[in-house]
Design goal:
Layout lengths: L1 E2 L12 H14 L14 H15 L8 E4 L2 H12 L4 E6 L4 H8 L3 E6 L1 E2 L2 E2 L1 H8 L6 E4 L13 H14 L2 E5 L21 E6 L11 E4 L2 H7 L3 H6 L4 H12 L2 H27 L5 E3 L6 E5 L6 H10 L2 E2 L1 E2 L12 E5 L5 H19 L1
Parallel strand pairs: 1-13, 3-4, 3-7, 7-8, 8-9
Antiparallel strand pairs: 2-10, 5-6, 9-10, 11-12, 12-15, 14-15
Helix pairs in contact: 1-9, 2-9, 5-6, 10-12, 11-12
Keywords: Aminotransferase, Transferase
InterPro entries: Aminotransferase_I/II_large, PyrdxlP-dep_Trfase, PyrdxlP-dep_Trfase_major, PyrdxlP-dep_Trfase_small
GO molecular function: transaminase activity
């Protein structure tokens, strides 16, 4: 079964030898430092290396004191909700959005308002209307290579969202895990001076989810507020052993070489998907050609049954995921999110062609 609901990296693409080399250096030369607790903010060495790496990537200075190490993007979002949003607070999220973020929000006492997406990103006009009527505490957005739609926010949208955050006194949790996957993306939402912005990054998408390491880039005052979390005070910074390994990988350039390799394969698969859909999709299907990330989004005529499409596909050993799973209110039942990074180009091409045929068959 070729399951295009999968949104991750194919196992054979991971760079185990590079990781092993850095791990051995850490174990052999750390004087057992690797087995100690780390400061609440995370290992100093890793914060410095991430700041250098981001500075090199963006050509804008990133300060280590504005970096907090997290156990991935989900942990970062959980930490921001816990420390920056009051109980019973109100947040705005995109519709559609990352479906596991919806599970995180369910764990908290929150009022959730959804707003749609435009071709330029989150609908900031709708956010402004909402803010004029009620107090908003946080906006959660995925501005770069959006999951699930693949949309990237334009500069106008990003600047307007920052302006609204200052004007109406709400925080922005900017989930930027796909920023370095695919075509080069604009500067992070946080650029070194914003007081209401938290930019969330993760090595899960650029190295592998097993690293379980990410970061929050925000003002040093906001970082200071986050590290007051009881879990960090008790347990210290996350994963000091893997943090030292990753520090070595950043110092030696291994991270960049791995990113370059993975992007080569991701680009090849993305281009194959775009080529097949551009040539074979029926004209009534709206296709958002991705510029990066892991996903493509299809919007199909609402009169066509997605369930029947899926039945036809399963007969051909292909599976898909319905767009309604990415909506708090179960909208987008006429849409499909398709992951293109897990399968090699030949299997991906086969699956995409079968999707086109299934849509045409059900449309007859």
């Amino acid at each position: 079964m070729i399951d295009l609901g999968i949104g991750q990296t194919e196992n054979c693409l991971f760079s185990s030898e590079e990781v092993k080399c850095s791990a051995l250096k850490v174990i052999n030369h750390s004087n057992n430092e690797a087995f100690q607790y780390a400061p609440e903010e995370g290992l100093y060495r890793l914060r410095v290396e991430i700041a250098k790496w981001l500075t090199n990537k963006t050509k804008m200075e990133v300060l280590y004191k504005d970096i907090l190490i997290t156990n991935g993007a989900s942990h970062a979002l959980e930490l921001i909700l816990k420390m920056m949003v009051p109980k019973g607070g109100t947040i705005i999220i995109e519709d559609p959005t990352y479906f596991f973020a919806l599970e995180i929000f369910k764990d908290w006492d929150l009022n959730i308002i959804t707003v749609g997406l435009t071709d330029g990103g989150i609908d900031v006009g709708e956010i402004e209307k909402i803010c004029k009527k009620r107090k908003i505490d946080l906006v959660y957005t995925i501005p770069f290579n959006h999951n699930p739609t693949g949309i990237t926010a334009n500069k106008k949208t990003i600047n307007k969202l920052k302006m609204l955050a200052d004007k109406f006194d709400f925080y922005v949790a900017s989930d930027e895990v796909y920023r370095f996957v695919g075509d080069p993306q604009p500067q992070s939402m946080y650029t070194g001076h914003e007081q209401r912005i938290f930019s969330i990054g993760s090595f899960s998408k650029i190295l592998g989810p097993g690293f379980r390491l990410g970061w929050i880039n925000a003002s040093d005052q906001n970082i200071s507020d986050l590290v007051k979390c009881g879990v960090l005070i008790s347990g210290g910074g996350v994963s000091p052993l893997m943090s030292l390994i990753l520090s070595n990988m950043l110092e030696t350039g291994k991270v960049d070489s791995i990113c370059k390799k993975l992007n080569y394969f991701y680009d090849e698969r993305r281009e194959r998907l775009i080529d097949v859909f551009s040539k074979n999709l029926p004209i009534h299907v709206k296709f958002y050609p991705p510029t990066g990330g892991f996903f493509a989004w299809l919007e199909i005529d609402s009169e066509i049954s997605i369930d029947k499409i899926r039945e036809n596909l399963i007969e051909k050993s292909v599976d898909i995921i319905n767009g309604s799973q990415f909506s708090l209110n179960k909208n987008f039942s006429n849409c499909l999110r398709l992951g293109f990074t897990f399968y090699p180009p030949s299997q991906l091409e086969y699956a995409c062609k079968e999707i086109c045929l299934a849509i045409k068959k059900v449309n007859i």
